[in-house]
């Protein structure tokens, strides 16, 4: 097991954040089961507060700090779900928040972060955004990393405890990777309690830093993030998440943006849920992995977020 994170850390996180988050539904799908010729379930984390799993980690991080350490408030670098999670967490805990965003951030994300009461500042480049964050941290703000933080990983891992409660017979979990915080938390729980359950990672082309890193046997940094799946846009995994991916994942399947968007349409048609490409890619990958799933398997698709506009699907 990873020394970064323990099952106990995740169990403590579950207790700590219980009053702050939603316990999201996990539903069997006859349609998806028929298509994949096995038993398929969807963990509907898109119904989490702020529309993604991220608040589990941000609440656990903020609530695990000594009150005096976040006197000024919380700050992060993000143009997506992490921005919304930090803004919402700060508001819920009566803290200030400054979110540093790329200038290319979609207006809907900017408006939502401001709607939660955060101050939004823009940076021309990622490097500039991280430099600003470092300066705020030196001034006494609490920086919340998008994925490389054990407290964050412990919060995200609470999803796995819910999966085991609802589908104790689970044999396989398919989840999207991004920077790897979600995978790290889920993997820690699953490999502690049900080590034979297989965890399958998914990324989209142009946001596939973990797949490339695993193939190379070392961390690979993407020069640019070109996928529509914005919330998978970590330019590289961290040393911690890379090591945990090597330990926990069967593989990382890389699908195209088109496949992820086609999967989003199918999930909207059949499950009546609108998920972002960073989540629908799990269904696209399930089709590629079909040979791994016999009729007796129990496969959970983790639909991690739903922050996508109809405009994106339409175009």
- Number of helices in the DSSP assignment: 13
Query: How many beta-strand elements?
Result: 10
Shape: globular
Major sheet size, sense and barrel closure: 6 strands, mixed
Q: Order of strands side by side in the largest beta sheet?
A: 1-2-10-7-8-9
User: How many domains?
Assistant: 2
Class by alpha and beta content: alpha/beta
Which band does the percent of strand residues land in?
Answer: 15-25%
Low-confidence stretches: none
Question: What top-tier CATH class of the largest domain fits best?
Answer: Alpha Beta
Helical content stands at 40-55%
- Overall average pLDDT: 93
Radius of gyration: 18 Å
Oligomeric state of the chains present here: single chain
What is the architecture of the largest domain at the second tier of CATH? 3-Layer(aba) Sandwich
Any idea of the CATH topology of the largest domain?
Answer: Rossmann fold
Short description:
By secondary structure, the protein is an alpha/beta fold. It is built from 13 helices and ten strands.
